[in-house]
Amino acid sequence: MRPFTYSRANDPASATKELAGNPNAKFLAGGTNLIDLMKEDVERPSAIVDISGLRLTEIKPIAAGFAKGGLSIGGLGKNTDAANHPLIRQNYPLLTQAILAGASGQIRNMATNGGNLLQRTRCPYFYEVAMPCNKREPGSGCGALEGVNRLHAIFGASEKCVAVYPSDMAIALAALDAIVKVKNASGQERSISFTDFHRLPGDTPERDTNLAHGELITSIDLPPNKFADKSYYLKVRDRASYAFALISVAAGLEMGSGNKIVQARIAMGGVAHKPWRALKAEQFLAGKEATAENFKRAADAEMADAKPLEHNKFKVELGNRSIVLALQMAMNGGKA
Amino acid sequence: MDVNETPDLSDDEKKLFEDLMPEDLDEILDTGVNRRHFLKLVTLAGGGILAAQSAVAEQLFTRPLSVPVAAELSSATIENGVNVSLNVNGAARKLLVDSRMTLLDTLRERLELTGSKKGCDHGQCGACTVIVDGQRVLSCLTLAASCEGKSVKTIEGLAKGTSGSTVRLHPMQEAFLKHDGFQCGFCTPGQICSAVALMDEAKRGDASYVTEDVRKKTAPVQLSTEEIRERMSGNLCRCGAYPNIVAAIQEVHSGKPVEQTFRFSA
Amino acid sequence: MQDKNKLTGTPISRIDGIAKVTGKAAYSTDYPVKNLAYAVLFKSTIAAGTIRIIDTTAAEKAPGVLAVITHTNAPKLNVNGGIRGGALLQSPEIEFYGQHIGLVVAETFEQARYATHLINVTYDKKEPKVDFEKLAKEATLPKDKERADAKRGDAKAALRDAEYKVEQVYETPIEHHHPLEPHATIAEWNGDRVTLYNSSQIVNGAQSAAANTLNIKPEQVRIITPYIGGGFGSKGGQWANLVLTAVAAKQVNRPVKLALTRQQMVNSVGLRQRNHQKVSLAATKDGKLTALAHEITTHGAIKNEFVEPCGDCSKVMYDVPNSLITYRAVPMNVILPTYTRGPGKSTGSFALESAMDELAYALKMDPIELRIKNEPERDPSNGKPWSSRKAVDCLQVGAKAFGWEKRKAEPRQNQQGNYLIGYGVAAGTYPAHQRPTSAIVKLKRTGNDVMATVELAAADLGTGTYTILTQTAADALGLPLRNVKVVIGDSDLPPAAGAVGSVGAASYANAVNDACQKITDELLTRSGKQFFARPTASQLMLSEKLTEFQTRIDAKPLESAEEYSAHSFNANFAEVSVNRFTGMVRVNRFLAVTGAGTILNPKTARSQIIGGNIWGIGMALTEESILDPRWGNFVTRSFADYHVPANLDIGDMEAIFIREDDQKSNTLGVKGIGEVGIVGVAAAVANAVFNATGKRVRELPITPDKLL
């Protein structure tokens, strides 16, 4: 860990101002990923602005605007508190399950909602500073592309980077069409739709998100939905708990009369550089009967475009099966 | 197959029994002392008491549980110093720390509280778990600088009393002893801090990934064995004491004795 | 057999338990040594070649830095002094990725760690040998005579003519020990004598390795290790970090603390090597084995060889007239492999016991019946009689307790919702040995109270040594537990065997028992009286009004033990459920039935067996370390990438002990349980996965991708 100055921010305005003045400054919230990466010498901030004391922790109903009738979650609230808030458990159980599928009790007590979105990849070539990695050191090459890439992307990767994004919470947020609200040093606020928040690697894998330096996540807004009773977050991993996903699927089904699907929401984790909305599967399911066969055909439609690497070919089949199972579990009321 | 067979009690055990379970003396006078009582003592009342009677338990190889003054470092050795006031195990502490210093290293290297362990230093094992403002967190990923005004409880702060016969263990510590919830003991402080905080999470009605229906919120929540396993999965134990850890927690959580038997077969 | 009035055999809680649950047990880095400086190691980022330039200028100028030590300025050490794995900063040569190439000592840990980032190294690289798949064909006969080809009869011919046969290859990956306590040392010099607080499974071994390597006398080195945060073999032999801490402390003339990081653990303290095992079994149609060939290909380090004995179970488990066991090994640019829980037997039994299951399936025979049918009367490898063998009892008792009759012989016949359920069985064994161990017993009387202190340089790495020795001494001296103090983990005490290879309990408990008998004999002689019944030492102290008395013994194994083949045996039963969509496997229930002689404390013994079982479940389902074949670095370098089982991975665990009175192996009949607990476990799980799914996974671990 390199030397850095430490300051505690008293309010969002001074926090963003302090960051804006120093391109090598970083916000510290829960610290669960940043401190880890600083110890690895991957992150090397010269200044830390501790925003963990800011009161952006409220969870409250949204009275107006696009997400009217939905819920606003404070950017600096803790993951545990979000997962267990009565309104989230009742109206967004998919989010509760996704948060609780991630990390451990201790980490969820530390990690913040905004910070969760900013988790960096767990790619081992990113973590080991002696290895080439375009995300950590642009131009150094991608260690995983022709290396050990069992855990890597099958959608949306580039020659520059095949890393996957590790958050569980964000996969549910993608399925929930969340909106990320941010504020900068000039006090300007903007809303970023969830699909636009994270980026595909392209030629600039060093940029995980479209957040500008110094912008602070003030809240994550959830529009209302009609699939709270038919949703499920499935996580497939190498051990039963406390492991990152091989594949995860957030699924929600808004049902009409009979057994007909009005709208399906499906997002996948462990497959891309960002939460992967399975739009092809969603499109296929709209207006269809909720049958095992249709679930399978939806999964086939989505996975047809997968481009696996040498060691992760299994993710195509596993992704397919996981979509089917997640939809089945969602139909069962999301019971674990 | 005989389960926990019950031969007679030795004199040694008799003495211990009288010392430790005087409330059962009437029954003993009526029915005589036998191994069944002894095993009850060992397996139900916390066999750890037995260990406490032994000469080795307290004095040998263990560190005094004092509250030392924070080791003062010359200011030259502290870079980007941050003044922090926090409460540790009920005592107010004030110290100047290097901005890079974690809470874990502060406890261990400056406050002589070495109970919290460094198993990975990256938030991947749980051995450094402490309770900050009532919540279990990882002290290895917490900067000491960010602990201003916070209240930290470590394994050293769970038992009442300080040494010898005046120590009254926390019920979770008792349960870990009774159920042999450890072998090497290195992950144990983290496991116990985690388990203690988990009891409050259950009282609040918090859910987990294996909660059958997260939409149903009840408080307190009665934890199944599976729930305890999931909620304790952030604390790795390489010796493989998991079943014993789960039994210990279940016993404290449910308030009912949990049977764990070894068996012999002829 | 257990005496009903004895403390040994009772499930008392750990003597060291209170220290452990209160956080007061002091592990290596917990000692409050004053004026500490902190050392952090830095590593090679190539796997083969030499260091051309190592620039430490910036690091030396960094705040708080007291010294930077590399091969350019390190003192001359004896590289053949007994430290394993090299990396002693004696030359610019690089033998594996992550090799220590230097260390920084600074006032604080933060300063030392930072300065390691400022080291600049230029290498002359060589092509590393790290791709086992490619190197395996270059493997040759190991130098170790124990790994020479072992032939009995003509296995190849018998296989050729067999009615039924199985010929399969089983692969097990590199595994790491990963004790929760990373290897760590505090070194404190006092004149020419150094005290090393350092977790050591073999206390005297650590002492001599440190002394020899530092070119000083053993009596100049004191190892203190009362508590060990797990070891599993990795703290048996000692590694460079121990000696380098002493070097650093000498250099800065201050006590120094050096702890490996979790990431450094994968390249610093040995590993379980990759094994490629071909097992061939031939049998008659009624299940009598006619041939067993077990051909192992593995790797060592680039300069030194270590070949774990994967063929050991195949030598002794079954009665088979034609047998062939061979080893071939190839050097690789990795840290030297070493003993890892159940060395050889755990990985070897995965191959053998999977093959037995495959054979049973081919024969349409119950796998338990197949094993019983091939039970040997004597040790097939040397013709010696068994000191005692409870292999069949383990299988039969286990089958009944587990509900084996509910198993469907055909796979995929038991589905519950989205889960396929399967049952598996596998047997295992581990040899039982007692090793020379000395001990001192001191008695001290105050009024009517007699206190005993038992001293020996034994180790307790969570195995229960303190507890069983307190029980043993209390029984042998006629004292209550609370009047016995056991002092271990210090090289100044009488030399003792290591807590390795399941010899600890037998070696220590017999030595303590012998010492207690000896002190009683001496007190009797001294009293000059005749007694109707043998009095206890405690009674003699009182009757003779002695205030202090002590004796020492140098206990040796029974000479007659050599005439027998002594082993612990077990049978493992697993019930798994496999998610039919995702391939995720859970072990719902696991039962290990063990015949391991006298069980000194069933509570700690049960824990140790279950712990071994959980290691085996990790081997079966989650643990795998992967080298990048281009650069030789482990991509699985943290606990996030290398999956040891977590709490939720483990279902209901049960342990049953077979009563076994085996005084042919040693006086107390203690056979050891630390190792046998893992043997056969991975095979039981893999066999259950086959029974559930119909998929035979021969390449561990059984991760979801292998069951799609």
UniProtKB/TrEMBL annotation, chain A:
Domain FAD-binding PCMH-type: 1-227
Keywords in alphabetical order: FAD, Flavoprotein
GO molecular function, one term: oxidoreductase activity
Classification via Pfam families: CO_deh_flav_C, FAD_binding_5
PROSITE patterns: FAD_PCMH (PS51387)
InterPro entries (alphabetical): CO_DH_flav_C, CO_DH_flav_C_dom_sf, Diverse_Substr_Oxidored, FAD-bd_PCMH, FAD-bd_PCMH-like_sf, FAD-bd_PCMH_sub1, FAD-bd_PCMH_sub2, Mopterin_DH_FAD-bd
Source taxon at top rank: Bacteria
Name listed for the protein in its UniProt record: Xanthine dehydrogenase YagS FAD-binding subunit
Higher taxonomy: Bacteria, Pseudomonadati, Bacteroidota, Cytophagia, Cytophagales
From TrEMBL, chain B:
Keyword annotations of the record: 2Fe-2S, Iron, Iron-sulfur, Metal-binding, Oxidoreductase
Location of the 2Fe-2S ferredoxin-type domain: 82-158
Name the record gives this protein: Xanthine dehydrogenase YagT iron-sulfur-binding subunit
Lineage top rank: taxon: Bacteria
Alphabetized NCBIfam families for the sequence: TAT_signal_seq
Gene3D superfamilies per the UniProt record, alphabetical: 3.10.20.30, [2Fe-2S]-binding domain (1.10.150.120)
Any single Pfam family the record assigns to this protein: Fer2_2
Organism: Spirosoma fluviale
Molecular function terms, GO-annotated: 2 iron, 2 sulfur cluster binding; metal ion binding; oxidoreductase activity, acting on the aldehyde or oxo group of donors
SUPFAM superfamilies from the UniProt entry: 2Fe-2S ferredoxin-like, CO dehydrogenase ISP C-domain like
Record bears the keyword ATP-binding: no
Coiled-coil positions: none
Automatic annotation (TrEMBL), chain C:
GO molecular function, one term: oxidoreductase activity
Any matching Pfam family: MoCoBD_2
Residues forming coiled coils: none
Annotated SMART domains: Ald_Xan_dh_C
Stretches assigned to the Aldehyde oxidase/xanthine dehydrogenase a/b hammerhead domain: 22-127
Keyword presence, Oxidoreductase: yes
Official protein name in the record: Xanthine dehydrogenase YagR molybdenum-binding subunit
Native species: Spirosoma fluviale
Highest classification ranks of the organism: Bacteria, Pseudomonadati, Bacteroidota, Cytophagia, Cytophagales
